[in-house]
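seq:
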Amino acid sequence: MSNKQKRSKYDYKYSVLIFVFATLSKQQWLEIDDLEGWSSDKIENIEAIVNIER
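struct:
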């Protein structure tokens, strides 16, 4: 994995967390259920991104 890939995969700025969690979910490192406590609209956005990228 290149440094650029690592930086984008592990970019934890709040503005990109939804995309980070979607990527981790798609790669099966994270389950949507693990996001308990997040607002339903954010979880829906993550699920939508995961489904688009499949």
